[in-house]
Amino acid sequence: MKRLLILPLLLLALVAHADRVRVRLFSTNTISTLNISFDLGQYNLYADDSLLLEPLVGEGRSVLVRCQGGRLAVSVNDDNYGLHRSLRLEATDTACILCLNPEGCKQRTYEGNLEVTPHAGNSLLLVADVDFETYLAGVVQSEIYGQQSDIFRIQAIISRTWALRNLRKHRADGYNFCDQVHCQAYLNRCIRPDIMVGVVRSSGQTLVDSAGALIETPFHSNSGGQTANSEDVWRTALPYLRSVQDTFSYRMRQTDWVKTISADRWLGYFAKTHRLDTGDSAIRDTLLHFSQPVRRARLLGIPLTRIRLDFKLRSTFFSVDYDSAARNVVLHGHGYGHGVGLSQEGAIRMVGLGIAYDSVLRHYYTGALLHLDPSANVNYLEHYTAQLEQIIEEDKNKQTQTRSKKDDWLGRLFRLRDREAREEIYIEEEQDNEQDWQYEW
User: Fold this and answer.
1) How far apart are the first and last CA of the chain?
2) 264, 334, 309, 105 alpha-carbon torsion, rounded to 10°
3) What's the pTM value of the predicted model, to 2 decimals?
4) How far from chain centre, in Å, is Cα 407?
5) What is the DSSP letter of 248?
6) How far is CA 262 from CA 195, 280, 312, 419, in A?
7) Which single residue of 190, 303, 347, 387 could bond 137 by disulfide (Cβ 3.0 to 4.6 Å)?
8) Distance CA 224, CA 52 (A)
9) Residue 288 burial (CB < 10 Å; 0-12/13-18/19+)?
């Protein structure tokens, strides 16, 4: 039986909330030209805070934006609309999908609103203004693989907790988050109803400490069999980020790795970069035959995090063998990522073994408590989940259906939530009489 700890009301003020967030898209790319098309729904197009044209833009139209002398050159279906300081596409409904095609980048699709402004170096700054839970579903899809809904529920809980704790991370830049691992990956809209089942089931759930404050919830691909203490990676010791044995991460995609480096390069690195006397036999022997039966933080006083960065290693959890014939060192490594907090592949294995999602979270975040926002309406969540499961079942029998019709499921789902915002009580008999409760292909 799964147990959920409900914290006393006096602690609730410590847990943050968010309705919408602003996310910088294509944050690691330099974009000078952007083509915007529309998969679903209609948008108001604003330039410099004024409506640029009527009727609304939607399917069959495309908007081209170029940065030109610090301004935005805008055209719609090849019709030129001049230069502007800013551009905003505002969705008229929850079921609206934008297709973004920056020059030189792979296409992505997103829900919500989009803002475009000139940026440094004659480039474009793209910021999505999106519903928080919609953003979260896209993060979960971008950050983890799997098939079972509890995998996505776990990822949603830790991603929600991180996002709420870090809402101001890019405040000085004019948005909440970027779309890369510097924050959390947000590389597309959620297109899988099975992922959304896990996200919906996680609604209102976060991880907190004994004082009711949101905790840090780092995660990584694979621990290699043992997670790391937070202070071994980021200096700060946190009571809920303790090293734990993690056999669940064995025999997964990212469990083991090998890297070969010339002995001259390896020894030269420590001599030149860290001023070690590699002519000393004891130092030389340690560098050529380093072993980590359990995780360590340093090698001859040098942080393993620095060595990992400089040699672009998958993890700091490695041992070294010396191949004297080839004059190479062979690094036998375990895991992928910084090693602190939740191992995603370990969590996937645990869920596959039937271990409850809350037990998985307790395994990786020592002493953390699972908090349920009392405003989360359980009846609605159950109804959403039932609708999604129906969509998944029907989808199996609708393989020839066009993508745009299939992709409407998320918009329909959030229309249900919009209704929740207008009503205080869920009354099943009344709701089931309303047309938009039912999904139709």
Assistant:
1) 36
2) 120
3) 0.85
4) 20
5) G
6) 44, 19, 15, 64
7) 190
8) 54
9) middle
